[in-house]
Design brief:
Layout: H1 2-12, H2 31-49, E1 74-79, E2 84-90, H3 93-103, H4 105-108, E3 111-118, E4 131-136, E5 143-147, E6 154-162, E7 168-173, E8 177-178, H5 196-202, H6 217-227, E9 257-263, E10 269-272, E11 275-277, E12 284-290, E13 294-297, E14 300-303, E15 310-313, E16 316-319, H7 329-332
Length: about 325
């Protein structure tokens, strides 16, 4: 028995030999792939520059419709093109109740009307429009496109009630708008200033120089003759100083013009300062005036074709020119 135990203990003391560690060899990369790796890495880095992370999805927006009414009385006019304008309006219930109480039965027999006024070149006060026309609209209407057939004119619109006896009761009045022209503008330069030499090139025949440019010595000499002394500084004509001042060639000339323009009915008769004026086919006109120092009164009178009405507008323009010469001491003793 003791012998068997001894043999078992010997077996337990048997040393187990250790296995050698496994060496993992590096995976070989084909030469062609290894050669392209720097290029591939560079491409990957370039793509990372422009990577934009996706934003977190936002909550769905609830689209709300515009309200049909805003609870305020108003009439708005806006331009669509040279002929058409668009109007929209709102009349509150309380306003209708006021006129219903004021007019009584006449309110129910009245018609809802858009009265369109031609207010070109006037400050509209409700009774001085050049002309007007009416458009009947339904009770449920709240906007309307209006054919003015009048390019380049100003318009104002009243919304109101036309009673059975012919009276028109204004409820709302719009803003004033001006439709654009449907062709080139006939206004030359009251809005954009043209230098005198450019104006002379455009209208050279009127300056006596033919088609050649008036800019040059001849032009300067003519200005000196025409305006010599006109803008001279006071006190420069004579001087108690005995030493004669040397004549200098430096000079400056400034002059002004006045442009008068307007419009009326094409068949009207128009005079300016008592002289008849020929209108353009659309009833417009424009004139250039010299504007010397002093007060200029330019009455413009228009008479209707039936000679039953005459209107007069008189622009009064004043001009005062001040001149000053500042000559330094160094220039005086040259």
């Amino acid at each position: 028995m003791a012998k068997i135990k001894k043999n078992i203990s010997r077996k337990r003391k048997t040393v187990v030999s250790k296995k050698a560690p496994i060496r993992r060899t590096k995976k070989e990369i084909p030469p062609a792939v290894e050669k392209e790796m720097p290029v591939m890495q560079e491409i990957a880095m370039e793509r990372m520059k422009y990577f934009t992370p996706q934003a977190a999805p936002s909550a769905p927006r609830i689209v709300e419709e515009l309200p049909g009414v805003y609870g305020q009385d108003r009439l708005v006019l806006q331009v669509r093109d040279p002929r058409w304008i668009h109007s929209y309006w709102e009349v509150t219930h309380s306003t209708y109740e006021h006129f219903r109480h004021q007019l009584g039965d006449g309110f129910y027999s009245s018609k809802r009307i858009l009265r369109v006024y031609d207010v070109s070149n006037v400050v509209f006060n409700g009774s001085n429009a050049h002309r007007f026309f009416d458009i009947e609209v339904g009770e449920q209407a709240s906007n309307w496109y209006i054919d003015t057939n009048g390019p380049g004119r100003s318009w104002c619109v009243d919304f109101g009630l036309l009673l059975s006896d012919g009276r028109f009761i204004t409820i709302l009045r719009s803003n004033t708008v001006t439709t654009p022209l449907d062709g080139p503008s006939w206004i030359t330069d009251e809005e954009w200033m043209i230098p005198e030499d450019m104006f002379a090139r455009l209208y050279g025949l009127g300056f006596g120089f033919g088609k050649s440019s008036p800019v040059g010595k001849a032009w300067q000499e003519r200005f000196k003759v025409l305006f010599s002394g006109a803008l001279a500084s006071p006190g420069m004509g004579s001087s108690p100083v005995k030493k004669k001042m040397r004549e200098r060639k430096f000079w400056l000339v400034v002059n002004t013009e006045l442009i008068v323009y307007g419009a009326t009915e094409p068949d009207a008769k128009v005079t300016i300062q008592g002289k008849p004026l020929k209108l353009r086919p659309d009833g417009t006109f424009s004139l250039r005036f010299a504007l010397p120092d002093g007060k200029q009164v330019i009455p413009v009178e228009a008479t209707s074709a039936d000679e039953l009405e005459t209107r007069t507008i008189t622009p009064i323009v004043s001009r005062e020119t001040k001149a000053h010469t500042n000559l330094r001491e160094q220039a005086k003793h040259e």
